[in-house]
Amino acid sequence: HGITTVYQNGLRWATIPYVDGRRSGTEKRYREGELLVEEVEWSNGQKHGSFYTYIGDTVTVKWFYQGKAVSKFAFDEAVR
Hints:
flat; mainly beta; 80 residues; eight-stranded antiparallel beta sheet
């Protein structure tokens, strides 16, 4: 349980939340230790929900349902 912070070359690279030893919650990935570049939703060790990528002023979103890439519509339908 808890959040693991991963460092690369002395700078924060990611913060990863765990519940019962599996990724669960919002993982955040950074560039240069401070600039947020990705946010990934996890549930029970699988990507589940949104996956945001931030590049400059551009934000892209991908969706996952129980570890598989799906459309936003398919995700919304599946979680009803």
